[in-house]
Amino acid sequence: MMEQLPWLILLLPLVSAATILFVARRVPNISALLSTGSALVTFVMSILFLGFGDDAVVPAYPWLWLGGTLEKGLVLEIGLQIDQLSRGMMFVVTTVGFLVHVFSLGYMRTDDGKARYFAGLSLFMFSMTGIVLANNFAMMFVFWELVGLSSYLLIGHWFQKDSAADAAKKAFITNRVGDFGFLIGILLVWAISQTVNFDRMETFFAGNPEVGSGLLAFAVICVFCGAVGKSAQLPLHVWLPDAMEGPTPVSALIHAATMVAAGVYMLARVAFLVEASELAAHVIAWVGGITALVAALMALQQDDIKRVLAYSTLSQLGYMVMAVGLLAAEAAMFHLFTHAFFKALLFLGSGSVIYACHHEQDIWKMGGLRKKMPLTFITFSIATLSLMALPWVTAGFYSKEAILAAAWHESAPLFVIAGFTAMLTAFYMTRLVLVTFFGKARTEHAAHAKESPPVMTLPLILLAIPSVIAGLPFFYERVQATAPEHHGEGSMLVLAASVITLIAGAGISFWLYKGASEDPLRIKLLARKFYIDEIYQGIIRVFQDGVATLLSIFDRYIIDGLIAQLPAYATASIGSILRRLQVGNLQGYAFLFALGVILLIWITLFNT
Amino acid sequence: MLTLGHYLIASGLLFSVGFIGVLLRRNVIIIFMCLELMLSAANLSLVAFSRYNQTAGLPDYNGDVLVFFIITVAAAEVAVGLAIIVALFRSRQITDVTAMNSMKN
Amino acid sequence: MTALFYFFAFVMLAGGLGVVLTRSPVTSAFSMVVSFLGLAALFIMLHAYLIGTLQILVYAGAIMVLFLFIIMLLDLKAEEDRKISLFTVIGGALLVSVFASQIIKVVKALPAAAEAMPELSASASEDVKNTGLLMFTDYVFPLQIIGVLLLVATVGVIVLSKKELK
Q1: Would you call A235 exposed, middle or buried from its count of C-beta atoms within 10 A (0-12, 13-18, 19+)?
Q2: In C, residues 78-107, which contact A (CB 8 Å cutoff)?
Q3: C135, part of any domain
Q4: What is the pLDDT of residues A455-468, one digit of tens each?
Q5: B61–C120: do the CB atoms touch at under 8 Å?
Q6: Residue ranges of the domains in chain B?
Q7: Which residues of C touch B43 (CB under 8 A)?
Q8: Which ipTM score applies to this complex?
């Protein structure tokens, strides 16, 4: 029974999704409870799962034998990876997942598509669990696509709105670009190591450190492309802010805590590949660093509460990717672990605010919510402080400092970038809290806002706890999160840098936005996100028009002319000749048939 | 001494006789009979093969089973074929294959 | 034995030629029966008693009757005007003789064709039992399919012979 537990964790959400889809769809409340129940059970099971040892044997099922053996050849199996990485990640996914389910009970209470929404959530939990537990690249890729699908369904939940439908499409297509690279990367890694299984791959690269360095670097960068798409790194980051069109709990679960972290998780899973290729590691580190910086800059001038958080997520993901590139995958996973809690809390808190303000998302139309929504305000502030990495008392501090320390040891320019980003983070988060919760209410909705019901505030409180204590060993060791071995012992300079940036960022922001009723800063370049979306639009338009013209010429002259008309002509003329063979006489056919048989016998038997 | 070759050549000759009939006769019923001759010729060679390919003092009965199936299918084929001929005769009053040319042009 | 073989082979081939060469369809049908009787005798010489018996029962019994029945039903006369062109006769005969010579050549070249008939053990006389065992064990699935085929053929014949198809 026990060795089947991980399979149960994997399959239960699928059962729930299927049940809702095929049976309970007509009864939204039952669907919601079903889905939440399955989330609760998987949460409990994943706590039991923490008790598994690394040597726990879980049955694996061979799926496709495409030649060769398990050690050397293309054999795809459905198997589960049981190690600290997957156990810790499962805890994060199921904890946040369960709380988001509970929050959704309140947030989506009156939604028409409630059953569909919860089916989507269950499908997502299934796919995400698959990514976490997959023991080989092929299986991971399948679930990788499945999270993409469930993300698509949930972003487009309110598909009646054009913007939501467009955002869903954008997310899916942008991810496809990255996944294309990912697939090529998987095939290349397989070509080098002859296996897609992570353990065997690791053994192989440990035994052959010199193998195909140039090709390997390319392969790793291709694999990284998958993470670029899924974790929304530059230049494929454009989908994540738009994905905020989905319901806010979805943003919390998928686009903050779990799915976007899947890219980082995947890189941590194959950290041995990154270590094997110095060039690829550099590329990864710099992409992460630049994303962290650029996303933080963009976040400065956003007015939509969820978009600020979205760019903040991008920036923090950039941190994690940078850490992987700096060969500090433990630090990346540690930051993923703490970030999942406080970022989910931030999103759920913003959901609570949005809910209270009748689906108003512009922070300049809020204000003064501090007194009206005390619980939301307190928990939101805790998460904000954790994100700003307030020293010693918040979880974010420990994990961010681990990354800063890694950057300090490996690369000075990246350390400067990371430090500057930390300052920007403090700046925009202070701005967000000041504008949203302090000052006077600037609209009617904000003036009449009320605290959300307990079903929504309870998850906030529950998430606030790990947002504070997740960085402390007694907590993270118990839930087996991956953490660097000697964190908190970084040099004084790293500590000083993080404190100074925090004070500087928060101070400037406080001075600028205290009591402001409109934005004193107007930096169009940042507000328009460096015009990246517009540039992509332009490139796509020029490219598309060019390709379309070319294809039209090709179609008209080559396809129509050469490929369609020529064979038609040839067929007609050959047909008119061959028609003479159709004598229309039964015995004529028999005669020809006999002639053919005799010729065949002669050719095969006598003509040697 | 009777060899396998004797039977095979007898079978081949019977097949050829049937073949000539199919090629030269115009009455569709005769053609049909000739087809039966050809099928039976094939049966003869199958039985001969099975008889000469013996294991442990027994013929290879797989050939016999196959012949049994062929006879069964031939019976079904005759029934259906004759029914078609009757239907054809009923609508066109012909049994001559050279007159069956309504699909030509 | 050899003399018997030549006799029955001659009967068989003569019957076959009778089918091809006679004008009257009724004569053709009877020639076919003669041919099949010779063939059945050859089967029995090959110790295939079951097949030999079946050959007589099915062909000489059932199929021949069917042919005669149809011939009489359609009231077919002998072909009066056999204006078969010389070209067709020569072409057909040439083609078939080439074919027959090919067969003979192949058989001559076959080493196994020169083998004498092997001796059989006593249990080979239980031909029906041996064939039946094989048919109802290894070949039971094909046997079922053949049964279905016969059913389908029966239905098809009934549909075809109805006067008007609705």
Answers
A1: middle
A2: 88, 91-92, 95-96, 98-99, 102, 105-106
A3: yes
A4: 888 888 888 888 88
A5: no
A6: 4-92
A7: 39, 51, 55
A8: 0.88
